[in-house]
Design a protein that fits this description.
Length: 364
């Protein structure tokens, strides 16, 4: 199927790409402080519509259930709510973290917005009563994912916290304005339904929940992906596998050519919404691959992109995959300004069965 590159160039690294629930609009955020809006035309192509300026780099985005509102977080520390209303895009501050906010997610079932930040807190926003709850985390958070019932938070110390969303929502008793009037802002204690150590030995890069609500997938900086289940009995089948690696050669101290396994971070994971056991990974090697979580098999690997894959997002119908591409530090070169020619968002159109899982291998 077709692969197209969005025409409006970004001037800094891509941080997130999010399709609206109806698949007609794509939001892209960047470290250049802008949010880019693309609308799908009659031919299925996504055309640039407008740019929304922020005061600091935007790190993540999330849509509400009907696609009229979206949420943004970043180095401005604010959790912002934007209304897409014609030419006007008014915004509201839902809460303010004490440091950069790195992830935001929306739960349609509970009508809450969850954000995590480097101040080691999680904010829960009840959109029904305007209440906000601030929860202290036991470390700096890295990634966040939601399903209908749970919020999964991963920390730099490799801890994985699973919170019940209904419980989190019930703690939102004060509005943000009321909290600002108090000398000491109330902070809730962590009360996860599960606390576990990651199955991966190194820092988590991303996490995604299975569409059936039974488990989640984590990726790490060390070229591995872990597949876990919430139920203790189901989690006996937990496993991890290596990916996003390149075999090459190097020269040792004796001048001999020896094999070398180059390991890349797995920066992004995303589940396919239709073929529910299938998920995509994107790595620092510029490769996107599709996997079957149930049969533990790779479905497909796409042609290598010119730079690291920063983010992934499937449209709700599973027809499109948005891929954010940006230079990382995988080549060992630290540059003050990224090469803008390598910064792009690619839209891959998938065939109806392209992401369908493979049958399990027969045991010999």
């Amino acid at each position: 199927m077709s692969v197209t590159e969005l025409t409006q160039p970004l001037s800094d690294v891509v941080s997130a790409a999010r399709f609206s629930p109806d698949g007609q609009t794509l939001l892209v955020s960047s470290w250049d402080t802008d949010i880019y809006v693309y609308n799908r035309d009659d031919k299925g192509a996504f055309a640039f519509s407008r740019k929304i300026r922020s005061t600091a780099p935007v790190l993540d985005l999330a849509w509400n259930a009907n696609g009229t509102t979206f949420y943004a977080v970043g180095l401005a520390q604010q959790v912002l709510q934007y209304q897409l209303d014609g030419d006007n895009i008014p915004h509201t501050v839902l809460s303010v973290h004490d440091s950069g906010a790195c992830r935001v997610r929306y739960s349609a079932k509970h009508n809450v917005v969850i954000s995590i930040a480097w101040d080691e807190t999680m904010h829960i926003h009840n959109l029904e009563n305007g209440g906000v709850s601030r929860m202290a985390l036991s470390g700096k958070p890295v990634a966040l994912a939601l399903n209908d019932d749970y919020a999964v938070v991963t920390l730099v110390n490799r801890k994985v916290y699973v919170h019940d969303l209904a419980t989190l929502k019930s703690q939102c008793t004060q509005t943000f304005a009321q909290q600002q009037q108090e000398e000491e802002k109330p902070v809730a204690r962590e009360s996860p339904v599960q606390l576990r150590e990651s199955s991966l030995k190194f820092l988590t890069r991303d996490v995604a929940c299975m569409p059936d609500g039974k488990g989640f997938v984590c990726s790490s900086i060390e070229g591995r992906v872990g597949v876990e289940w919430f139920d203790k009995e189901d989690n006996k089948q937990m496993y991890a596998f290596k990916c996003h690696r390149e075999k090459t050669t190097t020269v040792n101290e004796k001048g001999e050519s020896v094999p070398l396994d180059v390991v890349f971070p797995v920066n992004a994971v995303a589940f396919h919404p239709v073929h529910k056991g299938s998920f995509a990974t994107g790595g620092g090697d510029g490769v996107v691959a599709l996997w079957d979580a149930n049969t533990k098999r790779r479905i497909k690997q796409y042609q290598k992109l010119p730079a690291s894959v920063a983010c992934l997002e499937f449209s709700a119908d599973g027809r499109y995959l948005a891929i954010g591409v940006s230079p990382g530090f995988e080549d060992g070169k630290e540059q003050n300004e990224p090469d803008q020619s390598l910064i792009k968002v690619v839209i891959r159109e998938l065939g109806e069965s392209e992401a369908k899982g493979k049958a399990a291998k027969e045991k010999s």
